[in-house]
Amino acid sequence: MHSDREQTRDSNMSEKKMIRRDIAVILGIICVILVASIVGTFTLLSAQVKDLHTQVNDLSGIVNFQKTETWLSNKTLTINPNQNASEYFYAPLGGNIEVIGYVQPVLPNSHWINLSWVVVYHYHPVNVYTGYPDPSVRNGFEDYFDYDFPIVSFGQNEGGPNVLLVIGNSLNYSSITVNLTVIFTY
Q: CA neighbours within 13 Å on the CB side: how many for 18?
């Protein structure tokens, strides 16, 4: 009888040891899963923080007018007498447009520059308001020009052109050639 009790007690202890081992293994697996989850979460959060930091830097550049786009780079336009050439652009935000160019031949009042833009407010499905500011017109007196035009834009037109640059030839007897660069700062 004594041996039966010892066997029962030994089997109970053996079962308790097995249960304790099972619990230890389960707790170990849970700890490994938790550590892996924490490492994965930390990695994901680090990537998100880096992405947000990049977005903040981009927005700071926009707020401080440090972003530029070159719309045209030394494009050659040949404009016949009393004609003009047009270029269309899309400005996603308000900013400054710099128009730089060289004109040949060098003749007084040979060219003019007209830059205009449109601000469109969309209320589906119709345009409620469209404003056309007075265009800036300049008469050329030299072979080189560099003009700044501030513009207002709220990025409507869904990527379509909202800025129009027109360069005209004021001469009625000769064509002119214009090498043109247009830079947008926003």
A: 6
Residue 27 class from Cβ within 10 Å (0-12 exposed, 13-18 middle, 19+ buried)? exposed
Q: What distances in angstroms separate CA 176 from CA 15, 77, 82, 98, 179, one per listed residue?
A: 101, 8, 10, 21, 10
Please name the helix (run of DSSP H) or strand (run of DSSP E) that holds residue 106, with its range, or none: none
Q: What is the pLDDT of residues 52-76, one digit of tens each?
A: 888 888 777 767 778 889 999 999 9
Nearby residues of 36 by Cβ (< 8 Å), 6 or more positions away: none
- Say how far apart CA 152 and CA 15 lie, in whole Å: 80
CA 99 – CA 149 distance, rounded (Å): 8
State the Cα–Cα distance between residues 81 and 110, nearest whole angstrom: 9
Q: Tell me if 117 sits within 8 A of 163, measured CB to CB.
A: yes
| Residue 133 confidence (pLDDT) above 50 | no
| Residue 55 CB-half CA count within 13 A | 6
CA-based nearest residue to 134, from 149, 146, 121: 149
CATH classification (class only), 68-185: mainly beta
Q: Where are the domains of the chain?
A: 1-64, 68-185
Instruction: Please check whether residue 97 is in contact with residue 148, taking contact to mean a CB–CB distance below 8 angstroms.
Output: yes
